[in-house]
Design brief:
- The chain is of the alpha/beta class and 218 residues long.
- It has one domain: Glucose Oxidase, domain 1 (3-Layer(bba) Sandwich), CATH 3.50.30.50.
- Strands 1-13-11-5-7-9-10-4-12 form a 9-stranded mixed sheet, with helices on one face. The protein has a two-stranded antiparallel ribbon with strand order 2-3.
- Strand 9, helix 3 and strand 10 form a beta-alpha-beta unit.
């Protein structure tokens, strides 16, 4: 039997994903008690609005996040978001700067490449906003050359947040490769052979949006 592994963080009102970005807020439009009169005492419903920044929790970046004329979320092909074979790159013992050497001899073509650092263990703590593991420019260039469909990482950012040039975003999104940040639970995902689903809403003009990312294992 197959198994489903959740690799995304839950979205909670007031949670912090990245310093300086708005935190999600919930407005209750109709609660159970208020709805009973509307439905003549025969049913009750809960309806709420969630106000959030696209960069909340575990989310996917589309090319328009980096490039003015890039593809938006609605234009991303499903082939780059759903039912992709996975390969997990274990970088738990690596330096902060993850270079192309960790990708040597790994089959990357037509795969969703998930970079495991276990930095997600700091989620919800001040340590999560300290110096994060990231991919170097040469690693991202290799991912593009090798034909990776999608790249995810269980870290605060796929780039070094101290580098304003953001080379990882620049290279990957420039090649049309969606980026997924703030993943989690990658230790539970097998090194290869899983199938990733990480589909955001089809938001026209949208740059980034949370996903309920999961991996189906054989």
């Amino acid at each position: 039997m197959s198994r489903l592994i959740d690799v995304s963080h839950p979205v909670v009102a007031g949670m912090k994903t990245y310093p300086g970005l708005p935190e999600p807020v919930v407005d209750v439009n109709m609660d159970y008690d208020a709805s009973r009169e509307r439905y003549q005492g025969q049913a009750e419903f809960f309806i709420a609005s969630l106000h959030l920044c696209g960069n909340t929790g575990t989310y996917v970046d589309s090319p328009v996040h980096r490039y003015r004329d890039g593809a938006d979320l609605a234009a991303l092909p499903l082939e780059r978001l759903a039912d992709m074979e996975t390969v997990v790159i274990d970088c738990t013992g690596a330096e902060r700067a993850i270079g192309a050497d960790v990708l040597a001899d790994v089959e990357l073509r037509y795969r969703a490449v998930l970079v495991r650092t276990d930095f997600s263990l700091h989620w919800g703590t001040p340590a999560y906003f300290d110096e994060n593991p990231f991919l170097t420019a040469d690693a991202c260039e290799m991912l593009v050359r090798s034909g990776a469909l999608f790249v995810g990482i269980d870290s605060l950012n796929i780039d070094d947040t101290a580098n304003p040039a953001r080379p990882a975003h620049t290279i990957l999104l420039g090649a049309g490769v969606p980026v997924c940040e703030h993943m989690t639970n990658l230790a539970a995902v097998p090194s290869s052979g899983g199938r990733l689903h990480a589909v955001p809403i089809a938001w026209v003009g949208g740059a980034s949006f949370p996903v309920r990312a999961y991996v189906i294992t054989p």
